Amino acid sequence: MLAVLAGGAVAQQPEQSSAAGLDLPANLEIFGKLDPNVRKPTAIVNEHVITGTDVDQRVALILAANNTTKLPQAELDRLKLQVLRQLIDETLQIQEAKTADITITRDELQQSYDRIAQNFNRTPAQMAGFLRDAGSSERSLKRQIEGELAWQRYLRRKVEPSVNIGEAEVKAILDRLEAAKGTEEYNLREIYLSANDATAPQVLARAKQIIAEIQKAQQPFGFFARQYSEASTRGVDGDLGWVRAAQLPTELAASVQQMQPGQVAGPIPIPGGFSIIALADKRQVLTADPRDARLSLKQLTLKFPPGLAEAQAAAKAAAFGKALSAIQGCGTVAKVAATIGAEVVDNDAIRVRDLPPQLAEIMLQLQVGQATPPFGSREDGVRALVLCGRDDPKGGQLPSSEQVENQLQQQRVNLRSQQKLRDLRRDAVVEYR
Question: For the PpiC domain, which residue ranges apply (predicted)?
C-alpha cells in the first residue's frame, strides 16, 4: 500500500512482501495442483451467504459502468474472483459495523442510490431499469452502498477518536512546506496491486488489463481505483492528494516527473507490488498558479443548420473568424454577433484550469478585450471566447494548522482501516462452495 499525506509530510513506502517469518524448507515440493478457477464464485462469510448471483450481478454492474458488454472468458474469470474477494471484504465490514450498533437505514440507502442515479443522468426508476438490462440489480448496488457507508461510519466512531495529532507534528510539516516553496508537486490518483515473486506475472497481466479498461472507458480513474485498488486510498477514489517527488518511492517519482496532467502511467513495479498512477494536476508549492486565475468571458456561438455541406460550413466559419477581428473590447461583442447571427452568453468566474488544455493555453496569452480563434465542429457549430476580465490568483499560502491536522488524521485513519480489515480477514470463518 502507498499512503501519502495530501499536501504535506511523508510518504509511506509500500509494504514489503516477506517470507522471513515463515518456516519454509529450502527445497520445497508442491503435492497436488491448485487451479483457482475451479473454485465456484460462492462463499459463506461468518454464516452470511454470498451467492453466484451476487457475484454475477456485481460483475455486471462493473461492466455496465465501463460500457463493456463482454470480456474474454479468462478475463471474466479473473474479474469474478476479484469481485468475490471484494464482496467478502464488504461483508466483513458490514458485520463489524453492526457489532458497533451501526446500521444503515433504508432511507439512507435510498438517498445515496438516488444521488448515484443522478450522476448517471437517470431517475431512480430509470436506474433500476438500466441495472436490470445490464444483468445487475438495484439490490446489488445498494449492498455496495451499504458496505461503504457502514465502514465510513465505523471508522468515524471507533477509529478517528483514538487518532491524536500533536502540535509539534503539525509545526514540523508547516516548516517543511515553507522550506519546499517553489518546488513542483503533483496531484495523484493511484491503483495499487500487491504481488510477490510467485504472483508477480499474474498481477502484472491484471494491471495491464486494468490500464486497457481505463483507456477505453468513459468512467473517471477514481471509479477503477474503488474497484481494483488494494491501497487504503481506495475509499477516496485513489486520491493521494498533493505530493512532491521526494515523498514518493523512486520508481513512482521517475514516472510522475515525466507525466502531464490527465495522463495515466503503469504498471510501475514498486516494492510489494505494482502501481498504476494518474496525474490529475501539478503546481509549484506555495506559488501562485496562473491557471487559478478567474476569467470573465463572453462566448459567441454560430450554429450550423443540420446537413450543411462541408464547403458551406467552412465558408460560415471563415466569415465568423473575420467578424471576430472587428471586436474592440467586450462592449462591441453584441453588435458584432448580431451581424453574423451568433448567440452571446456571459460566463463569469471561470477558472483557466477548468477550460480544455488547448483553450487554457490561449486564454493565458490573451489581453482583456481579445478573442480566441474560432473553434468547434460542423455538428456543433463554431464558437469563440472573448476575455472581458481576469482576476489573477494571490500568492500561494501555507495551509492552516487545522488543515494539516485533518490531513494527518485522515492518513492515519486510512492506515488503521486497512489494518482492521486485515484482522477481520484473518479471524473470519469463510467457507468456499
Answer: 183-281
Q: Are strands 43-45 and 11-12 parallel, antiparallel or unpaired?
A: unpaired
| Joined grid coordinates for residue 361 | 493555453
Angle at 225 between CA 1 and CA 414, to 5 degrees: 45
> Which of helix, strand or coil describes residue 31?
coil
Asked whether the domain spanning 290-391 has the same topology as the one spanning 37-161, the reply is no
Which position has the grid cell 523512486?
250
Report whether 400 contacts 170 (CB < 8 A): no
CATH architecture for residues 37-161: Orthogonal Bundle (1.10)
pLDDT of residue 84 exceeding 60, the answer is: yes
Q: How many degrees, rounded to 5, is the angle at CA 190 between CA 275 and CA 398?
A: 130
Q: What are the DSSP calls for 218-278, one per residue?
A: SS-HHHHHHHH--SGGGGGTTEEEEEEGGGS-HHHHHHHTT--TT-EEEEEEETTEEEEEE
Backbone dihedral angles phi then psi of residue 309, each to the nearest 5 degrees: -65, 155
- So what's the architecture of 183-284 in CATH? Roll (3.10)
What's the CATH fold of domain 290-391?
A: Chitinase A; domain 3 (3.10.50)
**Residue 97: helix, strand or coil by DSSP?**
helix
Q: What percent of the residues of the chain are helix, what percent strand, and what percent coil, each to the nearest 5? A: 50, 20, 30
Q: Which residues have C-beta within 8 Å of that of residue 196, sequence separation ≥ 6?
A: 17
Alpha-carbon span 388 to 45, nearest angstrom = 62
d(CA 264, CA 257): 12
pLDDT per position as a tens digit, 48-83: 999 989 999 999 998 888 777 777 888 788 888 888
d(CA 7, CA 401): 12
In angstroms, the CA 52 to CA 43 distance is: 9
Could you tell me the maximum CA-CA distance found in the chain, to the nearest angstrom?
86
The label of the residue with cell 448496488 reads 141
Q: Is the distance from CB of 433 to CB of 45 less than 8 angstroms?
A: no
pLDDT in tens, 195-223: 898 899 999 999 998 998 888 876 788 88
- What is the spatial distance between Cα 159 and Cα 415, in angstroms, rounded to a whole number? 10
Do 145 and 398 form a contact (C-beta atoms < 8 A)?
no
Instruction: Provide the residue type at 155 as one letter.
Output: L
Comparing C-alpha atoms, which of 220, 356, 369 is closest to residue 298? 369
pTM: 0.57
Domain ranges of the chain: 37-161, 183-284, 290-391
- Confidence band, pLDDT 50/70/90 cuts, at residue 9: very low
